[in-house]
Amino acid sequence: MFASVSHEFRTPLNAILNSNNIVAQAFETIIQSVNNKVLDQEMKSTLDSNSLMIKKFSRIGKHSCELLLALVEDVLNLSKIEANTFTVNCEEFNVPDLINEVTEVFEFQCQRKKIKLDVNIDEGLNNEMLLSDRGRIKQALINLLSNSFKFTFKGGITIDVKICMLENQRSVQFSVTDTGVGIPKKDQSKLFKMFGMLDETKKLNPNGCGIGLTVSKKYVELLEGQFSMNSEVNEGTTMRFIVPKLSLNKFERLLDNNEENKSDEEMSVS
C-alpha cells in the first residue's frame, strides 16, 4: 500500500523544492541590496517585492508540507478505521478560517494551471463556531480539492459553504464543484472502494493511489454526517458533505462509541 501512496508524495515535495529555490534566489537579491546600502527608490521597491515573494513562497512550502502530512495521515487513519481504533477530536472552530487555510494550499497551483478558484461562504458562518473534528474536516476538504485540481484543465473550482439542516439539526454543508472531465454514472460507485481508480482517470493521473475519496467519506460518516456527489462527463463534478453542528452531549456520545469500539477490538485480539 505504501508503494502506491509514495507516488502521491511527489507533487507536494516538488512544490517544496521549487519554492525553496525561488525563496533562496529572492533572499540573495535582498542580501545584495542590503550589502550595497544603496536604498534609493528603485532598490527599496526591489527589496519590498522580494520580501513579499519570500513570504508567498514560504507559505507555499508550508502548505505543500501540509498536503504531504494529510496524505500520510489518511493512510494511518485508514488503518485505524479498518481496525476500529479510529477516534474523533472535539473542537470549536471558525469555518471561514479553516476554508482560508485550505484554499491557500491550492491558490498558487490553480494560478499556474490557469484555472479559477472561487470561494462562497455563508455570511452567517462568520460569527458562528462549528463543534466537530477540525483536522478531519480539513483533510476531507483537501482531498476533494486535490481530486478536482487533478482532473480540471479549464474553467475552475468553486468551494461553497453554507448552513443547512440535517435530520432537524443545524449543520454545515461543504461543496467542491469543478468543471473537470466528469465521471460516468456507471463508474461513480467505484470511486469509494479502496484504491478505486477508473481507467480513464489513471490515464490522466497515473500516479494516484485512489484513497482520498474513500477516506474522506469515512471521516464524514464517523462524524455522523452525509457525503454525496453529482457528476456529468465533460461537464464537471460536485462533491459535497454535511457535518452536523454537534452539541457537546452528542459529541461525548461519539467519543464514547469510539472507546467502545476500541475496547471490543482489544478483547477480540486478546
Question: How would you characterize this protein structure?
Answer:
The protein is α+β, with helices and mostly antiparallel strands and 270 residues long. The chain folds into 2 domains: 2-82; 91-253, Heat Shock Protein 90. It has 8 helices and 7 strands. It has helices spanning 2-6, 10-36, 41-82, 95-113, 134-150, 199-204, 212-222, 248-269, and strands at 91-94, 116-121, 129-132, 156-166, 169-178, 226-232, 236-244. A 5-stranded mixed sheet has the order 2-4-5-7-6. A two-stranded antiparallel ribbon has the order 1-3. Helix 3 packs across helix 4 (95-113), helix 3 crosses helix 7 (212-222) and helix 4 packs parallel to helix 5. Mean pLDDT is 78; it is low at 195-199 and 201-209.
Task: Please provide a brief summary of the model.
With 270 residues, the protein is an alpha+beta fold.
Mean pLDDT equals 78
CATH topology of the largest domain: Heat Shock Protein 90
CATH class term of the largest domain: Alpha Beta
Specify the CATH homologous superfamily of the largest domain.
Histidine kinase-like ATPase, C-terminal domain
Number of helices: 8
Overall number of domains: 2
Low-confidence stretches: 195-199, 201-209
Strand-and-helix sequence, N→C? Answer: HHHEHEEHEEHHEEH
Question: Largest sheet at a glance?
Answer: 5 strands, mixed
Total strand count, please? Answer: 7
Query: What is the percent of helical residues?
Result: 55-70%
Instruction: Report the portion of residues in β strands.
Output: 15-25%
N- and C-termini, Cα separation: 27 Å
Q: What is Rg? A: 21 Å
| Shape category | globular
